[in-house]
Write a structure and sequence with these properties.
alpha/beta, Rossmann fold, 6-stranded mixed beta sheet, 6-stranded parallel beta sheet
Length: 288
Amino acid sequence: MSKRKSIYGLVGYPVEHSLSPLMHNTAFKELGVHAVYELFPLKENALDVFFEDIKEKESPIFGLNVTVPYKEKALKYLDTKSPFAEKVGAINTIVISEDRKLTGYNTDGPGFLAHLTELKFNPAQKRVSLLGAGGAARAVVSVLCLIPEQPSVIKIFDMDKQKAHNLVEDLSRRMDTRLIKIVNNISELDIASADLVINATPVGLKESDPCLVDENLFHNNMLVYDLIYNPAETKLLKGAVTKGAKVSNGLGMLYYQGVLAFQHWAGMEITQKVKDKMRRALEEGLKK
C-alpha cells in the first residue's frame, strides 16, 4: 500500500481566488513528490481547532502558507520563528516537522525584494510612497528598513490613520523606523517626487474601484508597483503607463515568496527548471 499523500496548503479567508495551488502542485508534480497543495478557507473561530489537529502525530499536513487575515494571528500557534519573521511580527509560511513542531517564516518581504532585483530597481536612497498599512505593507516596510540599501524615506498613507501609527509603533520596537513618515492624506505622499510608488491596499481588485492616485503625478523616472496581481493591470498601473512610468503587478512577488516557501518545506534549493515551471503555472492561471 502506497504511503499517504503529504498535504500542504493555504490558510486564510477567503482563499478561493488564490493561484498558489497551481504553483505548488506544479512543483510537486515536476519533482515527483507524493504531495498535494490545498486551500483551507477558515473563519477565525475554526483556527484553534485546525492548529490543534495539525499538532497530532497522525496529521498529514507538513507545510502551510498563511494569508489575510491571519498573518499576525497565526504567530501564537508557532513553536519557533525565523529571525526575520520575529522582526516583522507576521508570517506567511509554516514548516511542520515530523515531530509536529511548527516553525514560522515570512517570505513576503524577501519575495518583494527579489522581484525588485529582477526589475533592476535598487531602493538605496530612493523616495518611497506607500499606500496601505496592512499585512502586506508590514512585510514590505520591514524588509526596506532592514536591508543595507535602505530608501531615504518611506511615506505611508492609510485611510485608517491609527492602523498606520500602530504598524510603525510595533515595528519600531524591533527595528530602526526613523526613515518612515506617516502622512495624513494621499497628497502628502508627494508622489510626484517619488521613485517608487507601492499599492499595498486591496483597492483595484474590483473593476468598480477608483484609481487612488491622480495619473498626472506619475512620471517616467519612477516604478509603480501594485501588489495586486489579479487583475494583471489595475487602474493605478494603467494610469502610470500613460505617463511613461515603469510598472509591475504583484505576480513576481507571489512567485518569489512561493519559491522561498517551497524551499523551506523541502529543506533544499530547487532547480531553475522547476522554478520556471512554477512561474509559468502562475502566468497561465492568471490568463484564465
